[in-house]
Each structure stands twice: as structure tokens, then as C-alpha cells.
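Exercise 3.2. Students should predict the tertiary structure of the chain below and write it as C-alpha cells, then compare their answer with the key that follows.

Predict this chain's 3D structure.
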Amino acid sequence: YPVPTTDVLTIELIDNKKSSLSLCDINGKVIIDYSFIGLTQLDLSSYATGTYYLTVETENTFITKKIIVQR
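Answer key:
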């Protein structure tokens, strides 16, 4: 949250298990890829306005959401 975003996107998971995330541009190019536990923030202020796809994978779940960066 928030979506759409202008700068920082917060990802908060209910459990505190190791998770991984990737952020891809509209062409499918991975631009962010790392692991986190529970809560993380992505600074998207240097990324171009547009649509991105965020995938979060936990032990039992795989979710992809559309992220819109606005200025």
C-alpha cells in the first residue's frame, strides 16, 4: 500500500516467515528481486511513471499484483 503510489510502497505480511518479492516492468524485466521477513518498503521514487507487477512468494502463497507508479 498505497496503490497507486508516488514513491514508497509498503508490503506487510501477517506472518513473520521468510518471503521473496520481485518487481517487473511491463515487459517482464525483473528490476527488484530480494527476500524479506514480515514488512518491507520499496522506494519507487526513481522509477518511471507506469505499470509494474509485484510478485510476493511465501512458503504457501504466490501472489502477483499490478502496481501503478504516478507522479
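Discussion points: The chain has a mean pLDDT of 94. The chain is about 0% helix and 60% strand.
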